[in-house]
Amino acid sequence: MSAEHIKELIRKNDNLGKLLGVELTEVSEGRAYAELKVAKEHLNAAGVAHGGSIFALADIALAAASNSYGNVALLTNGNIQVFHATQLGDTLIAKAKEVSASRRLAHYRVKVTNTAGEQIAVYNATVYKTSTPLPEHE
C-alpha cells in the first residue's frame, strides 16, 4: 500500500483530524509526520494549546505510521508528556517513528516540536497489529 494512499485514507476518514485541521505531510513504512497550526479552536481556558489537541496531533501521526504497512493497527496504550505551552499561531510538528515491533505489537515514539525546533511533547504508544487489510478504496 502506498504512502499516498495512507495519507489520503486518513485525510478523508479521520474525522477528528479534519475537525482539528491536522495535515499529514510525510508517510513511509513505520514513520509519519503531521502538522497542526494552533488556532483559536485549539486553545484551552488558559489561552494555550489544549493538551487534547497536542495528543490528537501525535495520535494521528501514530495512526499513519502504524498503519503504513497496509494492515489495520489499533492503539492499545499511549501516554504523553508535555514540556512547553504553545500559543495561538504556533505550528506543531509530530514525527512518529517505530521503535520496535513483533508479530502483533509495535511500539512508537512521537516527538512533537514547534517550528523553532523546541520539543513540546513526547508521546509513547503501543499498537496492536491486526491481520485486517486497510481498505483499498475510501
UniProtKB/TrEMBL annotation:
Gene3D superfamilies listed in its UniProt record: Hotdog Thioesterase
CDD domains: PaaI_thioesterase (cd03443)
InterPro entries in the record: Acyl-CoA_thioesterase_PaaI (IPR052723), HotDog_dom_sf (IPR029069), PAAI_dom (IPR003736), Thioestr_dom (IPR006683)
Domain of life: Bacteria
Thioesterase domain mapped to chain residues: 47-119
Transmembrane recorded as keyword: no
Key word Hydrolase present: yes
Entry's Gene Ontology molecular function annotations: acyl-CoA hydrolase activity
Coiled-coil region(s): none
This protein's UniProt keywords: Hydrolase
Protein name: Acyl-coenzyme A thioesterase PaaI
